[in-house]
Design goal:
With about 220 residues, the chain is of the alpha+beta class. It is built from 6 helices and 10 strands, in the order ααβββαββαββαβββα.
Length: about 220
């Protein structure tokens, strides 16, 4: 493997240099997620191209570059830059992962359907939270926690339960690769709609977006 995350460093000077660099880049980004938006964050594994070997070191890794590092602590929402640096300095180069199911769930659709749905929602004036896009072509809409458990019933009530939709909800136990981290060795995650103070801390209920997302997914598949 071409790199190691969270491994040993040879000297105190090297460790200090890593922490100074991390404080101005990775740690600043993590601190924005924790301090400004109130999200928990976890140091995540990376995958090296072209073989996508995972930095966790397990040859049979089932999610290369898309899972938390073993024994890595969670940086809680509200953590300051100094508090983030204290933790993240031990994991330079780690991907930024956000635990799903705590302050938000995700509704995931294809990136193209997500882009079309987002334009439609903005024109309709629907309440919206952040939206990410992954390098493997998925759009992920932030919604209030509980969406993953409620999704089958919500689709049933809206008459979409029998439709062949490329749509799923992610909840407790899942992790979001936060921009600009690399996702699974495929490239960086990005924002389709960036966090904003009026929505990041309280994303909309899934039922408010689900009808438009389901309709757009249905039309896109046709």
């Amino acid at each position: 493997m071409g790199f190691t995350i969270g491994g040993s460093r040879g000297t105190k000077e090297f460790r200090s240099g890593v922490r100074r660099r991390g404080r101005t880049s990775e740690c600043t980004t993590v601190a924005e997620y924790t301090g400004l938006w109130g999200w928990d964050a976890v140091p995540g594994a990376r995958a090296a191209a072209p073989a996508r070997d995972c930095s966790c070191g397990h040859t049979n890794c089932v999610a290369p570059g898309a899972h938390p590092l073993d024994f890595a602590p969670t940086v809680p929402g509200g953590a300051t830059l100094d508090e983030v640096t204290e933790v993240w300095g031990e994991y330079p180069g780690a991907a930024i992962l956000l635990p799903v199911g705590r302050t938000f769930d995700l509704i995931e659709v294809s990136a193209e359907a997500g882009r079309r749905a987002l334009v439609r929602m903005e024109r309709m004036g629907l309440p919206l939270g952040p939206v990410t896009v992954t390098p493997d072509g998925r759009a992920q809409f932030f919604v209030a926690p509980g969406a993953a458990a409620e999704l089958p019933q919500l689709l049933y009530r809206m008459g979409w339960d029998d439709a062949d939709l490329d749509l799923r909800a992610l909840g407790h136990g899942a992790f979001l690769t936060a921009p600009p981290s690399d996702h699974a060795g495929l490239g960086p995650a990005d924002w389709l709609r960036r966090p904003a103070l009026d929505c990041a801390g309280g994303p909309p209920q899934a039922r408010l977006l689900l009808g438009t997302l389901a309709y757009t997914c249905h039309r896109f598949r046709r």
